[in-house]
Amino acid sequence: MNNLPQVKIGIVAVSRDCFPEKLSVDRREALVKAYNELFDQKDIYECPICIVESELHMVAALENVRNAGCNALCVYLGNFGPEIAETLLAKHFDGPVMFVAAAEETQDNLMGGRGDAYCGMLNASYNLKLRNVRAYIPEYPVGTASECAAMINGFVPIARAIMALKDLKIISFGPRPLNFLACNAPIKQLFNLGVEIEENSELDLFEAFKKHENDPRIPAKVKEMEAELGEGNQKPSILPKLAQYELTLLDWIEAHKGYRKYVAIAGKCWPAFQTQFGFVPCYVNGRLTGMGIPVSCEVDIYGALSEYIGCAISGDIVTLLDINNTVPGDMYTESIKGKFDYQHTDTFMGFHCGNTNAKKLSACSMKHQLIMARALPEEVTQGTLEGDIVPGGITFFRLQSTADNILRAYIAEGEVLPVATRSFGGIGVFAIKDMKRFYRHVLIESGYPHHGAVAFGHFGKELFEVFKYIGVCPDEIGIIQPECTRYKSENPFG
Predict the structure, then answer these.
(1) Does 397 map to a domain?
(2) 59 lies in which domain range?
């Protein structure tokens, strides 16, 4: 995926002048050695400068990691550390920063070799707050060389998502369809996050599409689609138009991303799209998402933003689905009860017309869009990719600005069950423990729309840290609460 940044973390060890500098140097070298032994990625850089108490040392270290091409930073407390210099380093570094601290190594060296970084981390965190500096601090930020190496590696997807947002442009086409106010949200928070937005008319898009008629690249693009669809290519006559549309979007991205490096799209797909373009864009939306360029449906700008964050964290294809319908009782009894550890109310179906990438479907077929075909000629509703979503672990989540401009999010881990949906579109039977209460007291109570982003795997930890880092109040991050813990809006009398 070339629509994501490559992370390079500079590791800077800090030292207080009343501690032996060599202690931090040796511990930094051990940390880098452990990282290189444990992980294959070449995504760290060891800064040779050990900061003492001087702000000038901080400036030298900052220049060193910048010149080395580092776009993320790990401040490593090899000993107690100087809270002023180390937090100024975080303040002036233009990128995501984490703090970790060294644990004591042996009982035989608690006289000359004790570092007191456990204490120093408290001072560092206090000074970060004094300076209003955001930094990632792991759940338990003190450890041995190998433990801290694992913490730094866990920071990589978090850093990738944070830095990607600073260079992201969301391109949208058209206003949201009628009766889709649920996907409407103030764009002010996008600018607060550093995200740029370019809003266009779908008439602009249609004009660009018409200019791509007879584009010489269309036949090669059709062959790509044919190879991907295989036996699922049940609407071959529509592929040239879909290829034309894909080329239109890719060319638009190159012409319009400006100084931004990364792009996501919030696209229009109905009601006039089908009659004017002559197809539905679902399959193309999924293909671009597979390239690392998420495309949301129904001009869902925060849906596209959520998808992009999921893509940056997982490094994988994501999708956007409606939290759509309940699982019929007889399907639950026949296919889930006694086979999986879920109550009926833990399950639901996630669905969209056909925007999920082919790689995330157990099998796929190009079809017409059944819902739209109820009111339109079938031939203008072709282009949707149908199939059951691959079973396995998932994370359902969304980042959203409320009507009164508060940034809010939810995260729920679960799985797609290997249960045939017997339905249409891109769809799966989802199971999330205690979905019943989460649905009522997070999704409904907090006013979330029906669209949710889906990452394929469990990424709740990383998403939570990213949301905190970019400024979402932890109280505004909706998560599953165990039965013994009441949601704020939950009736205590049942």
Answers:
(1) yes
(2) 9-165
